[in-house]
Amino acid sequence: MFKNIGRIGIEMYLLFQHHTTLEILRNVNNDQDLFTITGTGWHFVKYLGPSVVVVGPDTRSERNPHQVMAGPTYQGLFPKVALLPPSVQHCIWMVPVPVVYPRLESVEHLASTMATGKKAVTGTFNMLGKVTSSVAGVVGAKSVVGDGFNSVKKAVGKSGLMSGILSPFGEIDVLDELRDQWTHESKDLERTYLVRTLQGIAHNKSLRMTFLSGDVNCCGAGLVHDPSRLQDHKTMYQIISSSVVNSPPSSYVLRLLHNNKPLYVPANGHRSTHTPTDTKEEMMEIFTQDVNGQPREMKRLMGRRNYVACVIYDPEIVNGTFGQAVPGHGGGKLSIAVDFMVQNENLYGAPMKYGPVIIPSLEYGR
């Protein structure tokens, strides 16, 4: 059943997101549209002019509890980026779930405890039900006792004390969400491999890497960088913009996400610890005021519906001499300005603009 659901899901994704079908793709002999590496998952590399490339890896088709993408997929994607023409200055990775994002370790511990408790309660009721039903069978009341224990289990399960917490499959919903994150411990080594490999390609190609993500129902900007060498190849930005149709997370969850625990990207092949390395991970404090002008305590993430507006520009042309633009006299190095457009308190009013977050190009040799 689940294989058929997945197959239909892929067909609908290709049809409505990419306006194509499997039959069409299998008869295409080039990678100009979508391409597959392992036969599972469809990826794309698109040019936004000669200087900006958008890479869209399929991070769903090969996903399981222990990986986002399979090893051969990375080995097929990375060379395509490493062989981009010299004119490309920015490589934007469109990954649905943020690669750079605060941790929710306390929530995971709580959810794991709840999951353990649920299993213990369910197991206890199952055992008691079997014993009592067996005894009751002697006196002819087995079905009555069995129905009674089923009712008690339901009260603790999806329709009772655990309602709103369990997924339709009886698992803890929060745990499902956390396992889906790049920052979950089950994806830790893979995430480090992705970040460190892209840092290496960025250094060799003088190519600025940026992640563009959503799926967390809020907006914000983060980065990984070397604090001692600002804007070198280790600096990669993370832009997060939520879908405009989803409700934002609660203020309690946002507060948990605004923790000050220092985060670092370890060396390849090592698990994340809080030991300092040459790559620090941070969220930027860009939401200093709310849409009504009131100062905000939580400045890194905004829990309102939003979208981002991105502009590619030449800083030398825009700045010019004393702020005067000089058309045709730029240096050719492009930056990206990202503005966050956040829904105002008046649903029909103009959105509030936050930013811009400036993503500079990478200087040669840095």
Automatic annotation (TrEMBL):
Q: Which domain of life is it from?
A: Eukaryota
Q: InterPro entries attached here? A: PhoD_2-like
* Ranges where the PhoD-like phosphatase domain occurs: 1-366
Q: What GO cellular component term, any one, is given?
A: membrane
Q: What is this protein called?
A: Alkaline phosphatase D-related protein
